[in-house]
Amino acid sequence: MSSSIFSFALSVFFLSSFTLSLNSIITDKNALISLKNSITSNPYAILSTNWSQNTSVCNWIGVSCGLKHHRVIALNLSGYDLAGTVSPHLGNLTFLRYLDISYNRFTRILPFELSKLRRLKVMNVGANSFTGEIPTWLGSLPQLEELYLHNNIFLGNIPEEIGNLSQLEVLSIPDSSLIGNIPSSVFNISSLKFMDLYNNSLSGNIPSDMCDSLPNIEVLRLWTNQLSGEIPPNIWKCTHLQDLELSVNHFNGKIPSEIGNSSMLRKLYLGVNDFRGKIPEQIGNLSQLEVLSIPTASLTGNIPSSLFNISSLKYVYLFNNSLSGNIPSNICDGLPYIEVLHISANQLYGEIPPNIWKCTHLQDLELSVNHFNGKIPSEIGSLSMLRELYLGFNDFRGMIPKEIGNLSQLEILSIPASSLTGNIPSSVFNISSLKFIDLSNNSLSDIWNTKHLDTLYLFNNNLSGTISPTIGNSSMLRVLYLGDNHFTGIYT
Ligand SMILES: *[C@@H]1O[C@H](CO)[C@@H](O)[C@H](O)[C@H]1NC(C)=O
Ligand SMILES: *[C@@H]1O[C@H](CO)[C@@H](O)[C@H](O)[C@H]1NC(C)=O
Ligand SMILES: *[C@@H]1O[C@H](CO)[C@@H](O)[C@H](O)[C@H]1NC(C)=O
Ligand SMILES: *[C@@H]1O[C@H](CO)[C@@H](O)[C@H](O)[C@H]1NC(C)=O
Ligand SMILES: *[C@@H]1O[C@H](CO)[C@@H](O)[C@H](O)[C@H]1NC(C)=O
Ligand SMILES: *[C@@H]1O[C@H](CO)[C@@H](O)[C@H](O)[C@H]1NC(C)=O
Ligand SMILES: *[C@@H]1O[C@H](CO)[C@@H](O)[C@H](O)[C@H]1NC(C)=O
Ligand SMILES: *[C@@H]1O[C@H](CO)[C@@H](O)[C@H](O)[C@H]1NC(C)=O
Ligand SMILES: *[C@@H]1O[C@H](CO)[C@@H](O)[C@H](O)[C@H]1NC(C)=O
Ligand SMILES: *[C@@H]1O[C@H](CO)[C@@H](O)[C@H](O)[C@H]1NC(C)=O
Ligand SMILES: *[C@@H]1O[C@H](CO)[C@@H](O)[C@H](O)[C@H]1NC(C)=O
Ligand SMILES: *[C@@H]1O[C@H](CO)[C@@H](O)[C@H](O)[C@H]1NC(C)=O
After folding, report:
1. Helix (H, G, I), strand (E, B) or coil at 27
2. Which of 146, 150, 232, 302 suits a disulfide with 208, CB 3.0-4.6 Å?
């Protein structure tokens, strides 16, 4: 008796759960059909051919169903170039965990009904044309871990309600037109690992106790905004920070020495801000650092010698500051992997160390507009990866070393206004990759063939005699300035 009641109850349970799931997948299907109907352009005809009424929605392209409830758990229509609006009925996909409609041409607002997607973990609506303000209801998606809203036409502020997303790990809203402060509630999401608000018009400060409430942050990308105030000295408490990008803002004050304790940092971008003072010596403690970029930031003082000791460094951009001091003679022992050294437009002096040849990965060496002196070391010719060499507006003396002709990857050779004398080595003109030469405003006295060149500036030298007939053979040459020399004739 009891067993038949039990089996009756069981079969009712199965039946009802079957019809429930049947009803529910019909709900999901209706929701997807509503979406399909709100799409006005479907260039690859994906939805019209594939989203066929006769087949299960679980076989539709971009749709994934869960095994347990047999409901739609993921909708990924990224990059199908779909145009139209997002149907509010999409909010009926209540089992949805992943929604990715990025890289399409959806317009209008994100419908309020999407706030019913309470199981959503990932929402990516980036690279569309959604308008209006960023919806406050996003703050009511309790499971949300990743939110991507980039490259839309969202206006106004970042809503404070985003701070309610206590599981959020990724907040990505670059390339929008957001204004106002970053709400303090956002700096309070302790789960956050990745915050990208690059290229907006956000203003205000970074809270000084930020790292107390963002202990897990790995990437903080805030460059190209209107942010101001100081970099919080407690930045070192963000012990997982790998990538700090604050360039092109109005940050001021000193770069805190405590930054040297952010031992996981790999990328540090602080340029184009209103700092004062020196580069802190403690920066040399960043033993994982690969990119150090602080151009145009009113920095003074020497480049700390500890910086030339960070063996992980690959890219150094410190141009357009007021840095002084010289390049240590053993620079390449400390920076064996350096690829870009761009320290133009400072007040640096001394010689280019001959041991520069040991920086075997160097591709871009920019030392222009400083007070470097001495000879250009012939050892530069051993930098076989070098593509760009800018040494102009310095106080060199002597000749261009003929070994420069060994730089078989060189594309740009720029040494104007640097007191150079003698011939331009013929080997230079044999570098087939070379596109651009600027040796103007020196005291050079001879010139050779220019077969591969795009641009040649040699004005204001002591070049004389006849211009090489091969100039006429330079099919690539677009720009040629030879004025203020002493030529006596030109072959045609
Ligand atoms: C979505 O759900 C709402 C509310 O339950 C309902 O009124 C609407 O008809 C549903 N939409 C579809 C397409 O089933
Ligand atoms: C729709 O696309 C999926 C995935 O490519 C495929 O498995 C399915 O057979 C297609 N259905 C129809 C009706 O074309
Ligand atoms: C869907 O069903 C209709 C009518 O039952 C049929 O004409 C059509 O060929 C079917 N389409 C597919 C893709 O099975
Ligand atoms: C959606 O598909 C694209 C392309 O296959 C993929 O890169 C992206 O990670 C997917 N989105 C989600 C949320 O899984
Ligand atoms: C968000 O959190 C605030 C308190 O910070 C609360 O008042 C509000 O109800 C929450 N909003 C949502 C949409 O959950
Ligand atoms: C910044 O974002 C705007 C859209 O708001 C975009 O048009 C522009 O190309 C972006 N600029 C950069 C440098 O990425
Ligand atoms: C930050 O979080 C703490 C604890 O969760 C809470 O007490 C505080 O009100 C929050 N502050 C802001 C500005 O949201
Ligand atoms: C930073 O690191 C140095 C050296 O490891 C240590 O002496 C100092 O106490 C640290 N500073 C802070 C604020 O933790
Ligand atoms: C950090 O840098 C300071 C100054 O350069 C130095 O005295 C200290 O030993 C460094 N600490 C560590 C752990 O490298
Ligand atoms: C160099 O810095 C000055 C301010 O110090 C700025 O006005 C100028 O635009 C910068 N030049 C370049 C090329 O970045
Ligand atoms: C550079 O590193 C070496 C070895 O790690 C160390 O002995 C030296 O003191 C460091 N120099 C500077 C200026 O930090
Ligand atoms: C470098 O150039 C010099 C002079 O032009 C030449 O003698 C030497 O063999 C070259 N070295 C290499 C490695 O090509």
Report:
1. helix
2. 232
Q: H-helix or E-strand containing 436?
A: strand 436-438
Centre of ligand 4 from the C-alpha of residue 166, in Å: 23
Residue 301 domain-assigned (yes or no): no
Which tokens sit at 363? 């591709």
Distance 378 CA to ligand 12 centre (A): 10
CB of 225 closer than 6 angstroms to any ligand 6 atom: no
E runs forming strands in 299-420:
300-302, 315-317, 322-326, 340-342, 347-351, 364-366, 371-374, 388-390, 395-396, 412-414
Testing ligand 7's pocket by substitution, the residue of 185, 186, 191, 212 carrying the most ligand atoms inside 8 A of its CB is 185
- What stretches of 148-243 show up as alpha helix (H) in DSSP? 210-213
Residue type, 294: I
Query: What gap in Å lies between CA 298 and CA 315, rounded to an integer?
Result: 20
- Give me the residue label for tokens 């060199």: 396
- The DSSP annotation for 168-188 comes to --EEE--SSEEEEEPPTTGGG
pLDDT in tens, 83-141: 999 999 999 999 999 999 999 999 999 999 999 999 999 999 999 999 999 999 999 99
Residue nearest to atom 11 of ligand 12 (CA): 406
Q: Is 262 in the pocket of ligand 8 (CB under 6 A)?
A: no
Is 72 within the bounds of a domain?
yes
User: Model-level pTM?
Assistant: 0.88
Query: What CATH number should be reported for the domain holding residue 65?
Result: 3.80.10.10
The closest ligand to the CA of 383 turns out to be 12
Q: To test ligand 2's pocket by mutation, which of 56, 60, 75, 80 has the most ligand atoms within 8 angstroms of CB?
A: 60
- For ligand 11, atom 6, the nearest C-alpha belongs to 309
Nearest alpha carbon, ligand 2 atom 7: 59
Q: Is residue 182 part of a domain?
A: no
Q: Which domain holds residue 95?
A: 30-121
- Residues 264-296: pLDDT tens digits? 999 999 999 999 999 999 999 999 999 999 999
Number of domains in the chain: 1
Q: How far apart are the first and last CA of the chain?
A: 114
Pocket test for ligand 10, best of 248, 275, 276, 296 (most atoms within 8 A of CB): 296
Q: Can you tell me the distance from the alpha carbon of 89 to that of 86, in angstroms, rounded to the nearest whole number? A: 8
